[in-house]
Design brief:
Elements (H helix, E strand, L loop, with lengths): L4 H22 L5 H7 L17 E4 L3 E5 H13 L9 E4 L10 H11 L1 H14 L2 E3 L6 H8 L6 E4 L13 E4 L2 H8 L4 E4 L2 E8 L8 H12 L7 E6 L1 H4 L3 H10 L7 E4 L3 H9 L3 H9 L8 H5 L1 H4 L2 E6 L6 E3 L7 E3 L3 H8 L5 E7 L6 H16 L7 E5 L3 H9 L2 H7 L3 E2 L22 E5 L15 E5 L2 H10 L11 E2 L5 E2 L21 E2 L36 E8 L4 H4 L12 H4 L8 E2 L4 E2 L2 E3 L4 E3 L1 H10 L4 E5 L11 H8 L2 E6 L4 H9 L3 E5 L13 E5 L10 E6 L5 E7 L4 H9 L2 H8 L1
Helix pairs in contact: 3-5, 3-7, 8-10, 11-12, 16-18, 16-19, 23-24, 25-26
The protein binds alpha-methylisocitric acid and iron/sulfur cluster (SF4).
Length: 753
């Protein structure tokens, strides 16, 4: 069965006409990203006038994907709109709430028990609103989308920052907050600031230990965690065509770590082969018939500097494997330099655990290459020196890997195989070999390695690499091992060199188990009951936020002035807090508990201006809320990088934080704050960050004439009686100002319905 094949057929039927019209209007060759965006406009608008990086445009995505940790809030918001079915095909995937500990089967059984209430809620809302529901154990959202739903030339949004994974299959896929998904589910347009375009030409061919993961590890190093902000990265060149579709998906997945809006590859043979191997021959054929409309125009690729805002070239033949980390995914270190880097920085080099899989790297190709390293190592009598954990991305991948003998091989080597879910990638990991605050090193093939992310321990040094490199390093048990040159001693005392990995892009074995993990929406909705108990600790119905009042923006204390990196993991930690993703009041107790207070360099310790005592951030925020005082949050650059979780924006709103003022924002987080009615401001002079003092009371003025492009004033009333006024900038357009005035985008939708 091919999901939504009718919709896909009609999409390809109308595509040539649409592209022809766009070309006529634009009068110039187009990138693939432009073709996709312009063919998905919500309203016909003068496309030739759209300014990249400046204008907001409304789009009409073809599909929406949500995962369980973000879907709860998205669906609670959808329920508030009182719609009774979704306007665009959508799915929910249960992947984030399964803790990895013993192994797939046992862990899944406990998750089903622990999360019963949430799974039942999600399943019933899905049934009621016509949303496809993928049960726990089915796989990680992005892998399931790639295997079942993505189609070249399509546009989708997903409530998870790694939604761009589908770009490996030629679909433009963008991560958003739940409120954005609600807009589209209720039939409205989806608003995005029209992106800029980064062109990356790949030449040559990968060889030896180098893998698609190393391409994106290198690029993340080049662009840094904010270099891709507001841009779509488009790949092309013979090197791009030489990669498997799943290898391309790995690159698009981790493009999120550069802050990029999305990443994409054009349709080619490897994409067509993947579609066929996953049972979608008809989609492969339809796409082949529209090939020219599913890649950038040849003139663009021949003259990339002219058409892209930034342009880079990477020669794959020269590419060395990378290890990125610790604590940030953009610290890219070629494997040959790790000895020197680790020594210079005093990093712990013994690897406690190696983990492979996740939504970034669990394709058949990844698993087969890692398995080839294991196979050869075992025959050379090597033993794993680190704990080794495998996390398949989906049941399809697990089942095929099992039939191909890979799972048996992993087990023979002593590896644990966890459930097809996020697990340790998002702190859902009960570690057996580490507890408390012990300094230790892990290496994984995931995408993010922010402090505390995998196991809650700030002293875990997490490094990111390809699955085959993680496997090799787990045999060495040493971060500085370079499999290209170094030798290892085997169990018989002999010196051995690890063989280069070998793998296949696609399995020869076919898969037929699909539907067991999938629930169709109900045909008789009257029988579906959606239950949210008022006593629940995990779910809470939402109450609308209050409308804007000018006087609330005067005399506001600084709740926290965050120092340095402040990702969504610092703002609203995952791990054990994932259980409160459907309960705004309970999850607000983690607000900013990972951020560093710039006034004392401490985590989760800020002054309460009412009592003059230090306390935890959520307690101080609650004290202000109870006293009916609004507060402000100050931050530095790329504030809110990382996840799409809108809890990071709903929590401050719930706790009465009126404005977040920073040096710069990450895209999804800024939109999430705007949607919830929080004022998002940036300093017009970055140096003004230093003017803000611990006991300041802040006024934001000019809100009566709040208008696009017009700066606002911020007066800092210092404790010594002096005050100073600085200019702050906002990026709100007219509609976003309406959201703000209404108290939230949801209030605005309700008013306009
Ligand atoms: C992540 O990788 O950080 C997550 C967990 O998948 C998040 C979503 C979430 O916080 O629920 C993301 O990437 O958007
Ligand atoms: Fe899950 Fe990790 Fe992928 Fe996020 S990055 S979707 S937590 S596997």
């Amino acid at each position: 069965m091919i999901f939504d094949i009718e919709i896909i057929r009609s999409f390809y039927q109308t595509l040539p006409r649409k592209i022809k019209e766009i070309k006529k209007l634009m009068e110039r060759p187009l990138t693939l990203s432009e073709k996709i965006l312009f063919s998905h406009l919500y309203k016909i608008s003068p496309v030739s006038k759209v300014r990249r990086g400046t204008d907001y445009v409304d789009f009409k995505p073809d599909r929406i994907a949500m995962q369980d940790a973000t879907a709860q809030m998205a669906l609670l918001q959808l329920m508030v709109t009182e719609k009774n079915h979704v306007s665009v095909p959508a799915t929910v995937h249960c992947d984030h709430l399964i803790t990895g500990q013993i192994g797939a089967e046992a862990d899944l059984i406990s998750a089903l028990e622990i999360n019963k209430e949430v799974y039942q809620f999600l399943a019933s809302v899905c049934s009621k609103f016509d949303i496809g529901f993928w049960k726990p154990g089915a796989g990680i959202i992005h892998q399931v989308i790639l295997e079942n739903y993505a189609f070249p030339g399509g546009l989708m949004i997903g409530t998870d920052s790694h939604t761009p994974t589908a770009g490996g299959l030629g679909m433009l896929a963008i991560g958003v907050g739940g409120a954005d998904a609600v807009d589209v589910m209720t039939g409205m347009g989806w608003e995005l600031r029209f992106p800029e375009f980064i062109g990356i030409k790949l030449t040559g061919r990968l060889n030896g230990w180098a893998s698609p993961k190393d391409i994106i590890l290198k690029i993340t190093g080049m662009l840094t965690v904010k270099g891709g902000t507001g841009a779509v990265i488009e790949y092309f060149g013979e090197g791009a065509e030489s990669l498997s579709c799943t290898g391309k998906a790995t690159i698009c997945n981790m493009g999120a770590e550069t802050g990029a809006t999305s990443s994409i590859f054009g349709f080619d043979k490897s994409i067509s082969d993947y579609l066929s191997a996953t049972g979608r021959n008809e989609v492969a054929e339809l796409a082949s018939n529209n090939r020219d409309d599913l890649t950038g125009d040849p003139e663009v690729y021949a003259n990339p500097e002219k058409y892209f805002d930034q342009y880079y070239e990477i020669d794959l033949s020269e590419l060395e494997p990378y290890i990125n980390g610790p604590f940030t995914p953009d610290r890219a270190i070629p494997v040959s330099q790790m000895k020197e880097e680790a020594r210079r920085n005093g990093w712990p080099v013994r690897i406690d655990t190696g983990l492979i899989g996740s939504c970034t790297n669990s394709s058949y190709e990844d698993i087969s290459r890692a398995a080839s390293v294991i196979k050869k190592a075992l025959s050379d009598k090597l033993v794993l020196r680190s704990e080794f954990i495998v996390i398949p991305g989906s049941e399809r991948i697990r089942a095929i890997s099992e039939s191909a003998g890979f799972v048996g091989l992993f087990r023979k080597a002593g590896a644990k195989v966890f459930a097809n879910a996020c697990g340790p990638c998002i702190g859902q990991w009960n570690r057996s070999n580490n507890s408390g605050l012990k300094v230790n090193t892990i290496i994984h093939s995931f995408n993010r390695n922010f402090s505390k992310r995998a196991d809650g321990n700030p002293n875990t040094y997490a490094f990111v690499a390809s699955p085959e490199l993680v496997t090799a390093l787990s045999f060495a048990g040493d971060l500085t091992f370079n499999p290209l040159n170094d030798l290892i001693v085997n169990s018989e005392g002999k010196i051995v060199k690890l063989a280069e990995p070998e793998g296949q892009a696609l399995p020869i074995i076919s898969y037929s188990g699909l539907m067991a993990d999938y629930q169709e929406p109900s045909s008789d909705k009257s029988k579906v009951e959606v239950r949210v108990s008022p006593d629940s600790e995990r779910l809470q119905l939402l109450k609308p936020f209050r409308e804007f009042r000018e006087q609330d923006f005067l005399n506001m204390p600084v709740l926290i002035k965050a120092k340095g990196k402040c990702t969504t993991d610092h703002i609203s930690m995952a791990g054990e807090w994932l259980k409160y993703r459907g309960h705004l009041e309970n999850i607000s107790e983690n607000y900013m508990t990972g951020a560093v207070n710039s006034f004392n360099d401490k985590i989760n310790l800020v002054i309460n201006q009412l009592t003059k005592k230090y306390d935890h951030v959520p307690s101080v925020a609650r004290a202000y809320k109870t006293a009916r005082i609004g507060s402000v949050v100050i931050g530095e650059e790329n504030f809110g990088e990382g996840s799409s979780r809108e809890h990071a924006a709903m929590e401050p709103r719930f706790l009465n934080v009126k404005a977040v003022i920073v040096k710069s924002f990450a895209r999804i987080h800024e939109t999430n704050l705007k949607k919830q009615g929080v004022l998002t401001l940036t300093f017009s002079d970055m140096g003004d960050y230093d003017r803000i003092l611990e006991n300041d009371r802040i006024d934001v003025t000019g809100l009566k004439d709040f208008a696009p492009g017009k700066p606002l004033n911020m007066t800092l009333n210092h404790a010594d009686g002096k005050s100073e006024t600085i200019k702050v900038i906002h990026s709100c357009n007219e509609v976003q100002i309406e959201w703000f005035k209404s108290g939230s985008a949801l209030n605005f939708i309700r008013k306009s319905m």
